[in-house]
């Protein structure tokens, strides 16, 4: 899943995928470690309670997460480090964080921060409460994604 546009994300309300999803490089394949119920940023000491499952992409699962002190609700993109074993996979994750950190646009989900523990990388994002119908990056059926339309919808012309 791309943190920027939700590429490849299953819709909210979808059942959470099982832990033994078979072979492959996707999320279910490396679900050996269970995602903790309380996520702690070791740098800031902020704690988040993992809540409702929102969806999944190729490498990540997304949940509502609530910052325990302020009770502010975010989206948490959680990537198992077991899926980031090859250098290009780590680079892709770093690049996604770097790009998202530098963006500030009303059509792009807001980046709040990231942290990691020994098993997972946690990306904290703005939570979009309403699902927008007809957003050009949301996949429906077998239609392939349409990047030019996505960029047009993102650009302020």
UniProtKB/TrEMBL annotation:
Residues 48-157 form the Protein kinase domain. InterPro entries: Kinase-like_dom_sf (IPR011009), Prot_kinase_dom (IPR000719), Protein_kinase_ATP_BS (IPR017441). One of its GO terms (molecular function) is ATP binding. ATP binds at residue 77. SUPFAM superfamilies: Protein kinase-like (PK-like) (SSF56112). Keywords: ATP-binding, Nucleotide-binding. It holds the Pfam family Pkinase. Coiled coil: none annotated. Residues 1-20, 135-157 are annotated as: Disordered. GO terms for cellular component: centrosome; cytoplasm; kinetochore; nucleus; spindle pole. GO terms for biological process: mitotic spindle organization. It comes from the Eukaryota. The keyword Cell division does not apply. This is Serine/threonine-protein kinase PLK1. It comes from Chrysemys picta bellii (Western painted turtle).
